[in-house]
Amino acid sequence: MKLSLRHLLPAALSLLIAGPVAGAGVERLQQLTKSLTSFQAGFVQTLYDADSEPVQESRGAVIVKRPGRFRWDYKAPYEQQIIADGERLWIYDSELAQVTVKRIDRALGAAPILLLSGSRPLEEQFELRDLGEREGLEWVELTPRVQDTDFHKIYIGLDAGGLGVMELRDGFGQATQIRFNDFERNVPAPDELFSFTPPAGVDVIGEGQ
Fold first, then answer.
1. Rounded Cα distance, 115 and 80, in Å
2. What is the CATH number of the domain that holds 44?
3. How far apart are CA 9 and CA 2, in angstroms?
4. CA within 20 to 30 Å of 62's CA: 16, 38, 115, 127, which one?
5. What average pLDDT score do residues 199-206 get?
6. pLDDT bracket for residue 191 (50, 70, 90)
């Protein structure tokens, strides 16, 4: 079930009055990211409109290796690959026969999963607020300290296994929610998994080539 804005708002307002809180959720998230070298999981990603209605759902698998590497494979309803090799972020759409490439240091707005694959402490990049427990998850709100990303709020829900949910809010009221399953931390992740060579005949656009 999607964590709705009407549920988050009262907790967020109370935290604004009380100031930043380093509660159980914040501490767990900090411990998770500090001890994490890699992880893999399946995911279900849902896009919600400004009225909190689902408009698109996709599924796939992700593997992350710190620092700066991940492979995000969408399997349904269409295939797409998003691969970070430590320097560049590659987005390959096989149906369009197109590859977009960006420098990884400019890609946080396009790929917020980088906040879990980077080497910088979260508190240097975000203001962290504990939102307490809801739906069996401990929720943390992350507000980027520099407002130059596509998302102005990120919510992370932690479950017993680690990362349960990541929810991204943009300035237009839309939300992207990613629910993880079969989360495994510190798994083997050879660098070759994160290497990408554009297939012959596809259009390559962007920077950092």
1. 21
2. 2.50.20.10
3. 14
4. 127
5. 91
6. very high
| Residue 208 binned pLDDT confidence (cut-offs 50, 70, 90) | low
**Closest to 59 in 3D by CA, of 40, 39, 79:** 79
First-last CA distance in the chain: 40
d(C-alpha 41, C-alpha 1), whole Å: 19
- Which is nearest to 150 in space by CA: 176, 119, 121, 123? 176
Tens digits of residue pLDDT in 4-56: 433 333 333 233 333 344 568 999 999 988 888 999 999 999 999 989 999 99
Q: What is residue 170's predicted lDDT score, i.e. its pLDDT?
A: 86
Residue 196 confidence (pLDDT): 94
Distance of CA 199 to the CA centre of its chain: 26
Question: What's the structural domain count of the chain?
Answer: 1
- Cis amide prior to 121 (ω within 30 degrees): no
DSSP state of 109: T
